[in-house]
Design goal:
The protein has one domain: Arginase, Chain A (3-Layer(aba) Sandwich). Helices cover 42% and strands 14% of the residues. The protein contains eleven helices and eight strands. Strands 2-1-3-8-7-4-5-6 form an eight-stranded parallel beta sheet. The termini are close together.
Length: 299
Amino acid sequence: MPLRLYYTDHHDFPLPPGHKFPKRKYRLLRETLARDARFDLAPAPPADPAVIALAHSRDYVEAFLSGTLPSGMMRRIGFPWSAGLLARTLASVGSTLSAARDSLERGAGGGLAGGTHHAFHDGGSGYCVFNDIAIAVHWLRSAALVHRVAVVDLDVHQGDGTAKIFENDPEVLTFSMHAASNFPFRKQASRIDVELPDGTGDAEYLDILERTLPRVWEFAPEIVFYQAGVDALATDTIGRLLLTPDGLRRRDQLVLRAAKQSGVPCVITLGGGYSEPIEITVEAHAATFRCAADLFARG
């Protein structure tokens, strides 16, 4: 059985000239993985706004849906509002909801989007409108499908929105391993935070991760969300860490093998990546999903 992945690039949205968001990587990643028989690619369905409101304030959700968010809030998100952005955002959340459902049935699921971990309960930030991981956690628990959840966030930027949303929730463990001096400059308190100095390379990174991950499995989660951003690469324009592609592959193996061996369903979300040329980022994202397919896809 191939690993099913949900894509969102069937919804385009306009950006001003020179915008730094690497929109092109989503299409390139889909095209790359479409050539691999281990994957079953499907367009992500739109999320129900009522489900989004499980993790976000209704006022914020309604204002974004109607295009009436104050300009300051849209600037903090980093995108101009458009109908295309709305459709893409709903699909991004839908990709993670669908992948979460698949993971319970198949052991793993993934989306070629999502990981929008900078979105807070009442506002977005850093190219993140809604927090797809937090929404999926609330949805799964509201349906009594799971009770204890872990979030392993290895994007180079702290998962501040996710940490804040679950800061007082004893049934959700948030683990963020990120560059200490990078965005967001005001950090939140995850259950486990590991802050890395600029220039951290493969050996130190993997040693710290291998020593920290057991705390996630000791929590006994019933599902794990893996925010698998690849912006820790040395080639990333805003990452500040020095991981190699091989280091990232070994990172993915540590997380995904542990989930497999623990029998914990795993949901993989895309996260960030800003290497130049963007094809480096695309290949790193593809390697994450190939690792997952090697472990979870069944013939």
